[in-house]
Amino acid sequence: MPSAVEAPLSGTLLDYWRHRLRQHLHDTYAGVSLMKFPEDLRTYEHLLWASRASVVIEIGTLKGGSALWFRDRLRAMASYGRVSSYHVISIDRELDDARAGLERTDPSWRETITLIEADVCDPSLPERVEGLVPPDTDCMVVEDSAHVYETTTAALEGFARFVRAGGFFVVEDGCVDIDELRLRDSWPRGVQPAVRDWLGGEVGREFTLRRDLELYGVSCHPCGFLQRGNAHP
User: Rounded to an integer, what distance in angstroms lies between the CA atom of residue 11 and that of residue 174?
Assistant: First the structure.
């Protein structure tokens, strides 16, 4: 397990944030690295349930822990009759570590998780993914790639098509653009500017920025929860 977060009552919320951010870099799920705040994971559970998404398209696989986590949340929804089938499509430029981690934890992972080795900036990638998604499928898209303007824009432009009315597109780690929340000067920048610019475009205007979905007080994804249309869960 990761070390406990130091959160003395005499501290500030910013102190807690910094400790929490350091901790999540060493967190795991089912023995596989999963670098996401529990608060954000809980929000994802709400969004999946509300939208009845049966496919999660994840841009940025890293070690594979989040693909496994999303698959298991979809599987739980299926057990309650919320969806009839489920699948996770996860994309990254290098997938050897993810394949190894998934294989170690669940040798049958290929039945419900598809890994695609590709660059989000490849203009042919959305069409490749489209061939894997059945027609009229409710998808949730999670963008967790390089956290720079170019990759964030490419993900929004290429993958918004998969989100139907009422569904969600989550752009992760907008915290990199808030100076007080940055742990290192070497961190990238450009997520929030890319989101703002894209929301002003033709397709982006069909989406609503949902700051109210930063539900639990701390989130790695400020200004990153986007919903197609105005329907609230």
Answer: 24
How confident is the model at residue 134, as a pLDDT?
Answer: 94
Q: Which residues contact 143 (CB under 8 A, 6 or more apart)?
A: 59, 60, 120, 152, 155, 156, 159, 169, 170, 171, 172
Side-chain-side CA neighbours of residue 79 (13 Å): 6
Give CA–CA dist 169/230, Å, rounded: 13
Q: pTM for the whole thing? A: 0.95
Residue 45, Cβ neighbours under 10 Å: how many? 13
Exposure on the CB side of residue 98, measured as CA atoms within 13 A: 26
Task: Report residue 12 CA to chain centroid gap.
Answer: 27
Q: Is the pLDDT of residue 222 over 70?
A: yes
Q: How far apart are CA 190 and CA 181, in angstroms?
A: 14
| Helical segments of the chain, H only | 13-24, 38-51, 65-79, 96-105, 125-130, 149-159, 191-199
87 Cβ contact list (under 8 Å, min separation 6): 54, 55, 56, 71, 74, 112, 113, 114, 132
Position 230 pLDDT exceeds 80: no
Looking at residues 87-92, what average pLDDT do you find? 98
